[in-house]
Design goal:
Mean pLDDT: 87
CATH superfamily: YVTN repeat-like/Quinoprotein amine dehydrogenase
Keywords: Signal
Strand order of the largest sheet: 1-35-34-33-32
Structural class: mainly beta
Number of helices: 1
Number of strands: 36
Shape: globular
Organism: Ornithinimicrobium faecis
Protein name: Zinc metallochaperone AztD
Low-confidence stretches: 20-24, 26-58, 62-76
Largest sheet: 5 strands, antiparallel
């Protein structure tokens, strides 16, 4: 795979003192996890895991077609395991025919896993697995990277990625939401909701799940809060209207039907949950719902990007109810503490895969002019911009590849389907520091921490 490297992520991390080390424990390192066998050795590369500001895989589209199941493999194998000098994040990149798993620091391909049909990819919340949607449900993809506690530090390991035969069954699998220590899966075809402790997912067995259900099937979403309560959307297959919250005993404690077309969710500071509506944004905070009304009669924000340390939420902003494909040139910034919003004009349009959050909560938008813009979420001021890819046009078919933005820590990853490239942007320096040519046309993009 070809690289155009100005510097490397590893050298950037070294310069900021973010390397982790296995502190004096290589001789008596804990054995690998059961089911992962093989020699243990320390590679020369050092890795550090950065937190993800949140990418809950929200999009504008209600139909999730998964006509073919990926090619599954037995998880009870003897993959060789290597101890690394620190957590080794990995990227997942879908394409027409499978999923690539890449080292997030070197961009080297660790595995090419065949799979058929249109593929959706979400981190499972445990730092090791992705969940890949197919015709059967949510299938576990072991990215082959994890860490285990050992005294006052961790030991980190890698092995070959594997697409398993472990599936959370679901009729029309939809949104995956990770928050705190839990992962929640929503089945659009039935309204069934499965919740499990994220760290209980293993490469050889599915965890026990708690079963809930929406009143009616719809393209919905659910979030488990830290007090054990669950927020879930309200609606039918024809119309979505709002959300309710059940406490840990299943009793309803809050409800709002003031969110027409509810779609998309994210979490802001103070565990405020934001939901996108066709006339603004609905917030759940301090035990009650609060509506942030848009100025326009129709203003759809179906894709939201939050940061759990920031009170501000970034959202798309579409104002044409009749458009088959609206290419918006405005975004909305919601102040969840004040319950207010402001609309920001941009010089270029963007797509539903163009929104993300950066270090310290910066609002990031990848425009169709190829420029990645960083906005101050409190003021809407564009504070930095960098040309990452060539100008592009959003395809009409939402399943077709388009430049996609994903962030992890101080780095932004941007795919370019036209050139089959993956770019790395150092958000601290506002510079493209690495570019790799991929062997496939990339579509969706996600990551796990290791």
């Amino acid at each position: 795979m070809n690289h155009t490297r100005r510097t490397s992520i590893l050298s950037v991390l070294a310069g900021t003192g973010l390397f982790l080390a296995v502190a004096g424990c290589t001789a008596d390192a804990d054995p690998p996890l059961e089911g992962d066998q093989g020699a243990v050795s320390l590679p020369p590369d050092d890795h550090d895991a950065e937190s993800d500001p949140g990418d809950h895989h929200d999009d504008d589209h209600d139909d999730h077609d998964h006509d073919h199941a990926p090619e599954a493999h037995d998880t009870d194998d003897a993959r060789p395991t290597t101890e690394s000098a620190g957590p080794a994040p990995r990227l997942g990149v879908t394409y027409d025919g499978g999923v690539l798993v890449l080292d997030a620091y070197t961009l080297e391909v660790e595995a090419d896993l065949p799979a058929a049909g249109f593929l959706r990819l979400n981190p499972a919340g445990d730092g090791r697995h992705f969940l890949l949607t197919d015709s059967q449900g949510f299938r576990a993809l072991d990215a082959g990277t994890w860490s285990e506690p050992h005294g006052n530090h961790d030991h980190s390991y890698t092995t070959d990625p594997l697409l398993t035969d472990l599936v959370f069954p679901a009729d029309h699998p939809g949104h995956v939401v990770t928050h705190g220590d839990t992962t929640v899966l929503f089945a659009d075809g039935t309204g069934e909701i499965q919740t499990f402790a994220s760290d209980d997912l293993a490469p050889t067995a599915l965890p026990e799940t708690e079963q809930l259900s929406a009143a009616q099937a719809h393209h919905g979403v659910a979030v488990r809060l830290e007090d054990g309560s669950t927020l879930l959307t309200l609606g039918t297959e024809e119309e979505r209207s709002g959300a309710l919250v059940q406490d840990a005993d299943g009793e309803e404690i809050a409800r709002s039907e003031e969110c027409p077309g509810v779609h998309g969710e994210t979490v802001a500071a103070g565990e405020v949950i934001a939901l996108g509506c066709e006339d603004g944004v609905l917030l759940y905070r301090d035990g009650e719902f609060v509506k942030v009304q848009a100025e326009a009669d129709f203003a759809r924000s179906g894709n939201l990007a939050g940061h759990e340390e920031s009170p501000y939420v970034l959202g798309d902003y579409k104002t044409d109810p009749d458009a088959e494909l609206e290419r918006p040139t405005q975004v909305v910034l919601i102040d969840t503490a004040e319950g207010t919003s402001q609309v920001v004009d941009l010089p270029a349009s963007y797509s539903f895969r163009s929104l993300a959050r950066g270090p310290e909560g910066a609002a990031l938008v990848l425009g169709t002019d190829g420029i990645l813009r960083s906005l101050n979420p409190a003021t809407g001021e564009v504070t930095a911009q960098i040309e990452v890819v060539a100008a592009w046009e959003e395809p009409v078919d939402w399943q077709q590849p388009r430049p996609t933005l994903h962030t992890r820590g101080q780095f932004a990853y941007v795919t370019d389907p036209a050139s089959q490239e993956l770019h790395v942007v150092d958000l601290a320096e506002q510079a493209v520091i690495d570019t790799a040519t991929l062997p496939v046309v990339p579509n969706e993009l996600s990551s796990v921490t290791g």
